[in-house]
Amino acid sequence: MDYRPQDIERKWRKYWEDHATYKVSNDNDRPKYYVLDMFPYPSGAGLHVGHPLGYIASDIIARYKRLQGYNVLHPMGFDAFGLPAEQYAIRIGVHPEVSTAANVKTYRKQLDNLGFSYDWSRQINTSDPKYYKWTQTIFLKLFGHYYNKKTDKAETIDSLIQIFEKEGNQHVHAESTEETIFSAQDWNSYDAKEKDDILMNYRLAYRKIGFVNWCEELGTVLANDEVKDGRSERGNHPVIKRPMMQWALRITAYAERLLNGLDQVEFSEALKTQQRNWIGRSEGARIFFDIEDNDAKIEIFTTRPDTIFGATFVVLAPEHELVVQLTSTKYQNDVDAYISYATNRSERERMADKRVTGQFIGAYAINPITKKKLPIYISDYVLIGYGTGAIMAVPSDDERDNKFAKKFGIEIIDVVDLSAFEDAKIGDKRGVMINSDFINGMKVPQAIDRMLEEVEKRGIGQRKVNYRLRDANFSRQRYWGEPFPVKYDMDGVSHPEKNLPLELPELNNFKPTKDGKPPLARAEEWVNSSQGFTRELDTMPGYAGSSWYFLRYMDPSNEEEPFSQNAVNYWQDVDLYLGGAEHAVGHLMYSRFWHKFMHDLGIVPTEEPYKKLVNQGMIQGIIEDVYMLKEKQEGKTVFVSADKIGTYQEDQYTQIHTHIDFVEDYGSEHSYMNEKGIQQFKEWIPEYENAIFDTNDQGHLVTHSEVGKMSKSKYNVINPDHVIEEHGTDCFRMYEMFLGPLEQSKPWDTKGITGVSKFLRKFWNLYFGVDGSPVVTDVDPTPKELKILHTAIKKVNLALDTFAFNVAVAEFMVATRDLAKEKCTKRAILEPLVILIAPFAPHIAEEIWVNALGKEASIHHVTFPKHDEKYLVVSTHTYPIQLGKKVRAKVDFPAEASKDEIEQAIRNSPDLDSWLQGKQLIKVIVVPKRLVNLVAK
RNA sequence: GCUCGAGUGGUGGAAUUGGUAGACACGCAGGACUUAAAAUCCUGUGGGCAGUAAUGCCCGUGCGGGUUCGAUUCCCGCCUCGAGCACCA
Predict the structure, then answer these.
(1) Smallest CA–C1' separation from A380: which nucleotide?
(2) Which of A96, A191, A694, A832 could make a disulfide contact with A480, Cβ separation 3.0–4.6 Å?
């Protein structure tokens, strides 16, 4: 019987489903192991070959751990709220719920084809009211808590209110937006709205003014990605920054804990660095600068208080609240112009732009130490969202300040002498202070300390730890997201909705309203729910549902609570989390934050959600382009074969993407569209029906190929279904793993898949004869066979522990080749071998287990083999004898030979002279079990 | 501009983290089987030079230095590519 993957794979998948082979119980004596994949957003394009890479790897680990005796939780679900479904609804009119359900079905079918060992009874969907009921619940918990810095944890708003009622806020030490002090008497005299406003300063979920990219023409809010040069990418309409009251999460309260938590998790150093940089902790001081002829003060933040003697100007962010008040009439117009220029540019653009721009506002600040007059500028290199939105500029010790000073002709005073520090650069916190009065001669670190003392002594500022992390904007002006369980009374006071889930109202138009309100405003009955209450119109962002989903898998159908304490106390946390590096900061930061919050609430036992995290690389595709002339000929579009494009000037043509399915030999230099491909291309874009195709002599339109992201918009998505159909799931799984290291990006290419396909056949042939009957015998194995087996066991175990799946696959090939050479049919060898491969190729393993070895299903519940060193010992070792880096000879020595014995043998060897080639021997270096190196002159 | 990665045959990639560079696979070449092709199997395959040949010599892990008996691996300086970014005071 030949190996026919399609037949056996279908058969075993059905068996596993019927027997609930992968069902996981929360009630088990075995140690737990939780393997989690980042769940996909089910887009209309379906799963492509890039998705399964991580899923296959995690499935292999899940199966491996199961075979090692762990109770393995390995679930999958869908991150089903999101913009594409909503845009599809606006364009085509299909309700997001309908298109999402259809996409989920497709994804599920495709995932099933990959032979994963998910416990599908635990599947979740973030857009299901049964799920988002709990997302809303957790949101209300954030709304109902504040961060107490004294106890360093979240505590209830009710307890805060009690304090306010008794003693005001003067002894409260909490994370808050504003720091106005009030007494108990003040508090008790406030009306409901005033109290609500004050509490918003403390709540972990709170409302504040945020800026959105508003496009009047499109009547909608745009994402940063959709804005280019202050205009919408679609349609090129103007985009302005528009203030809007929005929900935000006070993640900054957890900055320190998010930072410290990184020390206890196993993430790659690169990823930890990224998160640390994102949090951006810096120690420094806030210092107040007086203003000439004005009572206001400018609060600046600096990490270099030592350089204050070199501060020669002050820069405010264009959005800074004092700008309006301080600008003199003479500069009013210039300042207004600059503000409108700066504020309507995205932060992305502001950052990429290297030009130095700014505007003097006609006012002066007073340096609190030197008492000198400093001109005040606004510039977009100072960001309103960081620090205090104002800096003291020290052009001698800061690169950007320096450029700015040069451009605007501002005085530069050297305050740090670097002459004694050769490799020190500007801003390095090294050097000796000069021109700085009482700190002259001090080294920088010492000078910083001294100045901090002085600042506090003089009462002009305090030490402060600053974070670059900002509170997370939690509002979206969209339909397809979790509704906020919040309503407002006639005074605008916010009230939590008690009756959860608060379901999305039915709509058939998902556009914003004409007056710019979010789509939910269209559901008038829903919005104006009961006596005078109106509902929140925004919905939650995509990361709401994904911030806690891993906890729901532990107890997915619980209707009383998000998850039971029993479940979470058993499963604890995620042992291995696998997903793309694009979520390295956002998602991970938010879910770590939510987790810590829930830990404060006492509903999760661990401080960190993910013990170990591995990022998989991206699978790249091939982008195929055709050349199109910009000028039409006789009203017809002209496409020119790539091998003939050289006759045109570069500005005469442009490249447009074609679908890779139309291209022969795609990815190669000679890739082309033949007659059929051109025909498909015409049908695909009907406006080119009458286009001229300037082909080469063979009638081919040669295309341009390059490696790039696999994406629907580049028409290069490769769907795994066809590959699986042709070669089988086991082959596909092993091939994806064989491509290279998991973490590395690589282009998709099926050229090599025949190698894996051939291997599986060879592997099959170890167990089945040409007539299809099993050939396994009970004869005792030879030492050689045992060595092959145990080498494989050792290497595969090591590879699995280090996520070197490609190496493991290679090892299977080696072992199979060697055993085939030995014509090995011994059960003692072949039985462990098939268990070894089971995590990688689960179907063929099960088939062999049952039909060649006569065992009972399932192989996926047996025990993974461990190697025994005794089969690996060798009696002799061949040592290369090197002179310099050249191998002169090879000599065998007994494996147990000592360094000295080998050295003596070498020194006494009659061949020594010939190895040395007339040189003088100085030293013999023996590395046991490796090599011998002769050092000679 | 800043941060973090990565550069090894024609290609994807190995190398026990300082010890024989190129495992395994693709591709290519030659051969076997076949009327032929496909499929399958076997052999060879980093580059250069010399030799009928076995073989020998030289070069070789992006480039230039350094440390070391020995460097793909460690250090310094460059180049190229990729990813991320919120000009972080």
Answers:
(1) B87
(2) A96
Distance in angstroms: CA A213, C1' B89: 26
**ipTM score assigned to the predicted complex:** 0.92
- Cα–Cα distance between A589 and A276 in angstroms, integer? 10
Please state, as a whole number, how many other Cβ atoms lie within 10 Å of the Cβ of residue A490.
10
From the alpha carbon of A744, which nucleotide's C1' atom is closest?
Answer: B6
Q: Cα-flanking dihedrals φ and ψ of residue A936, to 5°? A: -140, 160
Q: Residue A534: what are its φ and ψ, rounded to 5°?
A: -120, 150
The 3-state secondary structure of A852-908, one letter per residue: CCCCCCCHHHCCCCCCCHHHCCCCEEEEEEEECCEEEEEEEEECCCCHHHHHHHHHC
Q: Residue A644 and residue A379: Cα distance in Å, rounded? A: 51
Estimate in Å the CA A830 to C1' B42 gap, whole number.
Answer: 25
Query: Is residue A88 within 8 Å of A94, Cβ to Cβ?
Result: yes
The pLDDT tens digits for A180-199 are: 889 999 999 999 999 999 99
Nucleotide nearest to A276 (CA to C1'): B3
Angle between helices A729-738 and A51-67 (to 10 degrees): 100
- Is there a contact between A157 and A199 (Cβ–Cβ < 8 Å)? yes
Helix (H, G, I), strand (E, B) or coil at A85: helix
Give the nucleotide with minimal C1' distance to the Cα of A270: B4
For residue A456, count other CB atoms closer than 10 A to its CB.
Answer: 13
d(CA A387, CA A663) in angstroms, rounded, equals 54
CA A913 – C1' B18 distance (Å)? 28
CA A754, C1' B36: Å apart? 24
Rounded distance between C-alpha atoms, residue A311 and residue A318, angstroms: 20
Bases on strand B under 7 Å from any protein CB: 1, 3-5, 11-16, 19-21, 23-27, 40-41, 57-58, 69-71, 82-89
0.90 surpassed by pTM: no
Neighbouring C-alpha atoms within 13 Å toward the C-beta of A853: 24
* pLDDT bucket at A708, cuts 50 / 70 / 90: low
CA proximity to A315, closest of A326, A330, A304, A307: A326
CA dihedral A751, A754, A756, A761 (to 10 degrees): 170
Report the C-alpha gap between A878 and A891 in whole angstroms. 6
Closest nucleotide to A584, Cα to C1' = B84
pLDDT per residue as tens digits for the range A784-822:
899 999 999 999 999 999 899 999 999 999 999 999 988
Average pLDDT over residues A549-559: 95
pLDDT at A711: 66
